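Lab notebook, page 48
Experiment: co-folding of the full assembly
Goal: obtain a model of how the components sit together before planning crosslinking
Operator: M.T.
Materials (sequences as entered):
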Amino acid sequence: MAKETLTIKDNRTEQEYEVPIWEDTIPAMELRQIKVNEGDFGMMSFDPGFKNTATTESTITLVDGANGILRYRGYPIDQLCEKSDSFESAYLIQYGELPTKEEYDKWVGDLKARASLPENFKAFFKAFEKDGHPMGKFIASVAALGTFNPTGSDIENVANRVEHVQRLFASAPTLAAYSYRNSQDLPYVEPDPELSYAGNFLKMMFADKDGNYELNPALEEALDILFILHMDHEQNCGTNAMRSIGSSHVDPYSAMAGAAAALYGPLHGGANEAVLRMLTKIGDVSNIPAFLEGVKAGKEKLMGFGHRVYKNYDPRARIIKSHADEVFKIAGANPLLDIALELEKIALNEDYFAKRKLYPNVDFYSGMIYQALGIPRAMFTVMFAIPRSIGWLAQWQELLNDPLQKIARPRQVYLGEGERSYKEIEQR
Ligand code: SDX
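Observation: model returned without errors.
Model output:
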């Protein structure tokens, strides 16, 4: 029986080391025994951007990049989009199993009881510039919500943790909608406990000044699917931020504000907004060849394309694309869709993209559906953050329950100056 070990030979010393293999990884700390001199610190791995480093074990989400597979707790994402809803999928991500009817009703009741914001929190949004970016407002309001919930810092208390997980997932749509209503000088609309997670959000966003709103079930269903698709994605940049910040044992509101800040970047969740800017700039299918020449020349990126893990079509992009037509039938065709479809068709036949295994990712088509739902472009990343809150929070709890986890504190390779003495300014 072959041994589950790696034998490493250090040719500098002719010394051999036997290192255990676990789940096709080696414990990085095992490298520290590899030294030239006894007093050496020992060897480390070097991996900018964690391109080949697992930072945790997890049971929440599987992303199989080679085969374009995404599963939450083992359930394929396409089945959840077809059969589940945002509340139920959030329960699955939180607890690891699909709920019984009784568990579902209690979960939904607990969430709806925590969807409203404290009365004087509403004044908070008035402090913002009306046209300030909604992600900046979302990040700030998540952290501010923590100041209204001081028991959030009692992270050792599991029941208390779940209370704040529910409050954050339940009130994320409310924070987003209130921020939008304030920017439009519209009165706030209280969460409606009769509606679904997606339906309640649409009503809080678009109800008239008397709170009246006619929900279109097909658009509600499309948004519910988008929410499910965005809930978790294993150790992405935002989740890594959530875990890194959470590893200091800070409260979940502060950790989630940091995760949302990471998501805001155009290389991450900010890409959905950047895709619409890109498509608008291209303006017409006739301009696609020239645009792609610029991309291949490295002058710009094809936003919504490429992924660190998916080296195949992002299954979420496929599902979103399949629902786009239904939405546009109701909300009206989006001229940018033709550009996006043609851009995808041409790009997927270009060697530059094929060689680099660059395919459409979750952000390539999602913005067009948000636009069709009437969501302002600047809010697209907020639309990503709302459902991703349950993924961040489930990963945060997994971190706290993992005995192997410690405060995140990576090492470095120092290549700076050696010791030198201070010089007075006159001598510089
Ligand atoms: C999300 O990690 C997750 O799971 C994230 C996410 C989630 O659910 O949390 O899936 C959400 O963030 C999706 C990604 C959204 N971002 C974008 O669409 C922005 C455009 N994409 C790229 O910036 C890029 O593809 C990344 C950031 C997504 C991935 O970057 P990597 O893995 O670090 O890859 P890389 O930058 O090293 O690229 C490898 C090569 C390079 O070319 P060479 O240097 O080898 O010549 O591919 C090129 C890159 O220049 N490349 C692109 C490109 N993406 C990569 N070239 C043009 N356009 C692109 N979009």
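Interpretation: Residues 1-47 form one domain.
Next step: discuss with group before ordering constructs.
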